[in-house]
Specification:
- It contains twelve helices and two strands.
- By secondary structure, the protein is mainly α.
- It folds into two domains: 68 residues, no CATH class; 193 residues, no CATH class.
- β1 and β2 form a beta hairpin.
- α8 packs across α9.
């Protein structure tokens, strides 16, 4: 919805600019003239007469639209999507996986397991992910956040009984920083690259995918053996996490005219906001 509104504003701004140009021509007694170079690039082999525009007018037009386009793209957070066929196929696959397997299992799990237990499990996995957040904060130079993550880990691992409790938040009001290596790369000025959707893992970008690999090596679950046990732990974490958010995905999907584009734009904007914090 936000991108559609910005597009409409862009059209209105374009119309206003062109109408202003026409009014300026009428005041001079000349015929209104549309300048195609103001809205589209002109190749060198094109022979277009620009005799009704002075060099200063063209320069002002180009400067106006360059600044407007740069500002528009910056606000919308657009990212290249050259893998659209693959991404749409994976989006469809993940969509079916959610409705056919993940959601039914999570609903059954939610009906059986009390909320207090599920919250404890969520706290445990959150505490287990401390190395990812702590390293990311340290690499970004966020020393206060680094200290917060360290204190949270020590307190929750001991007083909180291996992280199942969260006394650091309840007693000391220390919230998690929610940082990762993808955000760290963004802070260092590395762009998104292109958009990509991974099976089961969901939306990402080239930058966030590289950061995701680094996050895996910092995740203690990666080093669990055998592989079956590791897969079981990761699957259980996903089911427990989903049990708190049943209905969220459906509400966004059903409200969107084009679900794929809606989730893509929402993800890009979300990551942009996280990097800027």
């Amino acid at each position: 919805m936000k991108n559609r509104l910005e597009y409409i504003l862009f059209i209105f701004a374009l119309a206003f600019f062109l109408l202003s140009g026409c009014a300026h021509d009428r005041k001079k007694g000349s015929t209104p003239h549309f300048d195609p170079t103001a809205v589209s690039p002109v190749s060198q082999d094109q022979d277009i007469s620009l005799s009704k525009e002075t060099p200063s007018d063209l320069e002002m037009n180009d400067e106006f639209f360059d600044e407007f386009e740069e500002e528009y793209k910056g606000r919308s957070g657009r990212v290249a999507d050259p893998l659209s066929p693959w991404n749409r196929a994976m989006f469809h696959f993940n969509d079916k996986f959610y409705f056919w397997l993940l959601k039914p299992v999570s609903k059954g799990y939610k009906a059986i397991v009390p909320e207090v237990v599920r919250i404890g499990v969520s706290n445990f996995f959150c505490n287990l992910g401390t190395p990812i957040r702590l390293t990311s904060c340290l690499l970004q130079g966020k020393m206060k956040a680094t200290g917060t993550e360290l204190v949270r880990f020590l307190m929750n691992s001991t007083v909180g009984v291996l992280g199942f409790g969260d006394p650091a938040q309840k007693c000391l009001k220390l919230d998690i920083t929610d940082e990762d290596l993808g955000q760290t790369l963004g802070v260092y000025g590395i762009g998104n690259g292109f958009y990509v959707v991974w099976p089961l893992l969901g939306p990402s970008t080239l930058r966030d995918s590289v950061g995701m690999v680094g996050d895996w090596f910092l995740d203690p679950v990666l080093y669990v053996e055998p592989f079956g046990a590791k897969l079981g732990i990761l699957s259980y974490e996903k089911v427990n996490e989903t049990s708190f958010r049943i209905g969220d995905y459906e509400s966004i999907r059903d409200a969107a005219i084009e679900p794929y584009e809606a989730f893509r734009d929402a993800y890009i904007q979300y990551r942009k906001t996280k990097v800027e914090k």
